[in-house]
Design goal:
Blueprint (H helix, E strand, L loop, with lengths): L1 H19 L4 E2 L1 H9 L5 E4 L3 H6 L5 E3 L8 H5 L2 H8 L5 E4 L5 H12 L7 E4 L17
Parallel strand pairs: 1-5, 2-3, 2-4, 4-5
Length: 139
């Protein structure tokens, strides 16, 4: 009986942790499909300048706002917010690894009245993007 209760407790802990994250994620596979089928969506890339120039997804809006901690870095997202609000499409936030910077960008965009049901974070960021043939350089 103790073992069963322990298993249930562990399950609820991990299930609660997953729900408590409060962020919407999108897989690289799904984004690849969207790119290939020309689905309308907005990519807000927060990588720093050198990383963005080295590798980014096609049609990304470069903000260079990583790590999105200061007011200045948040201000760099404003143009992307205006652009994304003109459309009623998904918004994919891309950062180096899909972690804290992406979450801060997501939270900031949400605080600026971007509907949360449109906000997504690319799982594992650019570091986890496996489709090198769909990567652009420069800009």
């Amino acid at each position: 009986m103790k073992k069963l209760l322990m298993i249930i407790a562990v399950f609820w802990f991990f299930a609660g942790s997953a729900l408590a994250s409060g962020y919407n994620y999108v897989s690289p596979e799904k984004v690849k499909t969207w790119i290939e089928t020309q689905k309308l969506f907005t990519i807000v890339d927060i990588q720093v300048t050198d990383e963005f120039k080295a590798h980014h997804l096609p049609n990304s809006i470069a903000t260079y706002a990583y790590p999105v901690k200061t007011d200045g870095e948040k201000a760099q997202i404003e143009d992307a917010i205006r652009t994304s609000m003109e459309k009623d499409t998904p918004i994919v936030v891309v950062c180096p690894r899909g972690g804290g910077g992406a979450k801060r960008c997501y939270d900031y965009m949400k605080s600026k009245n971007v509907p949360e049901d449109r906000l997504l974070i690319l799982e594992k960021g650019m570091a986890g993007w496996p489709y090198k043939d769909l990567v652009e350089t420069g800009q």
